[in-house]
Amino acid sequence: MGDNLIYLFVAFLITWLIMAAYLWSIGRQVRNLRDEVEALENAELPAEAPTATPRRQEQVESSQA
Amino acid sequence: MKQGSTRGLPGWRFAQGVGALAGVVMAIALYMAFVYAPADALQGDVQRIFYLHVPMAWVAFLAFFVTFIGGIGYLWKRHRGWDQLARASAEIGLVFTTIVLLSGSLWGKPIWGTWWTWDARLTTTLLLWFIYLAYFMLRSYVSDPERAARYAAVLGIFGFIDVPIIYKSVDWWRTLHPGPVVSTGGAAMPGSMVVTLLVALAATTLIYAYMLYQRFWIERTKDEIADYHYRLYERQLAREMREGASV
Amino acid sequence: MRRELGRIYAVAWKDLLSEIRTKEMFGGMAVFALLTIITFNFAFDLTGVDRAASGAGALWVAISFAAMLGLGRSIAVERDRGSLDGLLLCPVDRGVLYLGKLLSNLIFILLVEAISVPVFGALYDLPIYRPTLLLGLLLGTIGFAGIGTLFAVMASTTRAREILFPVLLFPVAVPVVIATVRVASMTLSGTTGDVGRWLNLLVGFDVVFLTIAFLVFDRIVEE
Known about the structure:
The complex is a heterotrimer of chains A (65), B (247) and C (223).
Chain A: H1 5-48, H2 54-64
Chain B: H1 12-36, H2 50-77, H3 80-112, H4 120-141, H5 145-176, H6 191-246
Helix pairs in contact in B: 1-6, 2-3, 2-5, 2-6, 3-4, 3-5, 3-6, 4-5
Chain C: H1 2-22, H2 26-43, H3 51-81, H4 83-89, H5 94-124, H6 131-156, H7 161-172, H8 174-189, H9 195-221
Helix pairs in contact in C: 1-5, 2-3, 2-5, 3-5, 3-6, 3-8, 5-6, 5-9, 6-7, 6-8, 6-9, 8-9
């Protein structure tokens, strides 16, 4: 039985390595996306300021439809 | 873009709670698997792989079922949320299936004396793995995301319905070509083993729920960012056309 | 009902007529199937006593590979010529278009089988004219062509469609492969014990997947 323990050990090791790597990759994606969203939220206002005259805004609105 | 932030998503904090709970239950499950549950009379300590392998297999199947439901929901309602759910769940299912195949192999080697056997369960799991690998290849090869969602939904439906048919066909095929005996002696399993298995199943399901929530949020936010860039591009285009017209 | 059948027939006839004029698909499929059968002879010794068991596998692999080529081609050609868009503009149910394409693909594959199966029987001296074997082959071909037609339409709009199509098709088609090969090898080796169960499985597969394909085809081709 003793030499079989290596299989038990490797099985748990591989499983937890994969799980840890996957959880880490999910966490990283969440962080990156959150940063991106924040960057966009901050950049949004100045970028749209020049087009913010009412008449043009209306045109933009209709062109989206 | 406000709703794209994690703060705006209801239940983000709840999901963190689920994640913490999953960690605690998993710790208990590991303790039970190694200390509380007795060593199997025939297989010895290697049998403890079972507490990891079986819940993973069940939850992987649950994940593909969610993908199946998401596919039906998308084709029916055409709401993008269904597709985001389907692809989030399919990825977790693929990761779990990979673990199931590897841990099953590591159990098979000492117990059956072989890494692999063409048993119905193993073969069906391997084919499931290939079907959902194709699911992601299909998604990455289709450039239009809306069309990719439709195609993936169809493959998710076909793949899931195929599972019992594959299982049945491999099962009958194997009975004609006898292989190693596949029996974990489920009927004679002591109560402490059953309890340990159930705790491990709860832990794995909680981890799945936690991962699904995060993956779903990732898919949703990616789509929203893509939408935002598209709107920006449209606005830019409209502006350029107006300027061109005024010149 | 009769009108729908007429429409299915019209779609299939269009494909057959186009093939009669261009002759670009059928010849290639048939030669490919024959070459595969011959290549298998070098890969496995198909002249020994167990040729009934392994020969059935070789036959089905040859047919399914040739079918895959034909299915991919028949849809890809429609896409490239833009005739699929024309078909979609027709005022008929999309499911009818699916059945029409399926019928023409089925006819091509069955014609390939009509050539390769007798050649296979003659080359390896196997009694292939058994009703169960032919029925199994027919049911398997229907299932394979059924999901193949749908997946070929999906793969045809993608990059690298030649690679993607078999990757989509083969894992899902595994029950068809197993059942068809079992029916053929059991018939050829004379053990007709459980052939009925395999034929039932094939019928079940065909009914389930053709129904789903018919229902979702509309969602696949919309632009």
